[in-house]
Amino acid sequence: MADETNVEVPAVSVDAPASEGGEREARRGRGRGRDGASGGGDNRGRGGRRDDRRPRNDEDQGEELIEKLVHINRVSKTVKGGKRFGFAALVVVGDGKGRVGFGHGKAREVPEAITKATASAKKKMIRVSLKEGRTLHHDGKGHFGAGRVNVRSAPAGTGIIAGGPMRAVFESLGVHDVVTKSVGTSNPYNMIRATFDALIDQSSPKVVAQRRGKKVSDLLGRDGHHHSQAELEAAADAISE
Q1: At what angle do helices 110-123 and 2-62 cross, to 10 degrees?
Q2: For residues 180 and 149, what is the distance between their CA atoms, to the nearest angstrom?
Q3: Rounded to whole angstroms, how far apart are CA atoms 222 and 211?
Q4: Same domain, 54 and 89
Q5: Is 137:204 a contact under the CB 8 Å cutoff?
Q6: Among residues 34, 63, 92, which one ends one of the domains?
Q7: What domain range includes position 108?
Q8: Do the Cβ atoms of 90 and 116 come closer than 8 Å?
Q9: If you write DSSP's letter for every residue of 176-235 in order, what string do you get?
Q10: To which H or E segment does residue 66 belong?
Q11: Quick one: DSSP state of residue 174?
Q12: Are residues 168 and 223 in the same domain?
């Protein structure tokens, strides 16, 4: 019996190293806990910095942003218990000074869908150069899918001659005089994407002059303008930009 007892003692001693191993793992766990806590703190710190950046951007943009709801689409899914309704929102956001963007969001409720679409639009804003801060520099064409649009610059007092989604884009952009035409589709998503395709191709005389290594007054003077008038227009465009 004594021998059997002695044989069982190593079994206890075998458990002891396991407990020591458990203690080591606990220490490691505590060490990982400290490291993990510090790592978690870093993640929280990084997350905090991202959160800090977003409110600043939202505050900077929220003071002057123009938000326009273009379209809301309701969809339903038939399930065993009935129907589940969802909403998709299309929103255009701009600062009225040459920056505009669009976004769409989906959710079960309309306010949440609009919030998602607005956040998406703020992330994808583009800058468009405007002539005298009121109209486009030149005519342009854009297309997306079956949607095709034509945009033309207009003299002062013309107003925004555009319908539906295109009007929301130009109002948010800050354009006061423009003539547009949409051909091919009435889908608001395709119309807005085609409009943005036309706006991306807009170039100011300043950009063209830099690309060609010339002066802005030289480019404007070729259209029959006097040199002094071309210089005044170039200065006005520089101030508006």
Answers
A1: 80
A2: 7
A3: 17
A4: no
A5: yes
A6: 63
A7: 66-126
A8: no
A9: -SEEEEEES---HHHHHHHHHHHHHT---HHHHHHHHT--HHHHHHTTT--HHHHHHHHH
A10: strand 66-79
A11: T
A12: yes
Q: Taking Cα atoms as reference points, which of 211, 202, 213 lies closest to residue 139?
A: 202
CA-CA distance, 183 to 185, in Å (whole number)?
6
Q: Answer for the pair 204, 220: CB distance below 8 angstroms, yes or no.
A: no
Query: How do residues 16-32 score in pLDDT, each as one tens digit?
Result: 444 455 555 545 555 44
Instruction: Tell me the residue length of the chain.
Output: 241
Give dist(CA 89, CA 105) in Å, integer.
Answer: 5
pLDDT tens for each residue of 139-196:
899 999 888 999 999 999 899 999 888 999 999 998 999 999 999 888 999 999 999 9
Q: Can you read off the two tokens belonging to residue 105?
A: 């969001």
* 180 and 166 together in one domain: yes
8 Å CB contact between 88 and 82: no
The torsion region of residue 50 among left (phi > 0), alpha (psi -120 to 50) and beta comes to alpha
pTM: 0.63
Q: Do residues 168 and 214 make contact, with C-beta atoms less than 8 angstroms apart?
A: no
pLDDT of residue 238: 53
| CA-wise closest residue to 205 among 230, 240, 234 | 234
The encoded tokens of residue 68 equal 């326009």
Nearest to 200 by CA among 112, 128, 92: 128
Which stretches of the chain are DSSP H helices?
2-62, 110-123, 165-173, 188-200, 205-212, 216-221, 227-240
- The token duo for 48 is 């905090």
How far is the C-alpha of 81 from the C-alpha of 239, rounded, in Å? 62
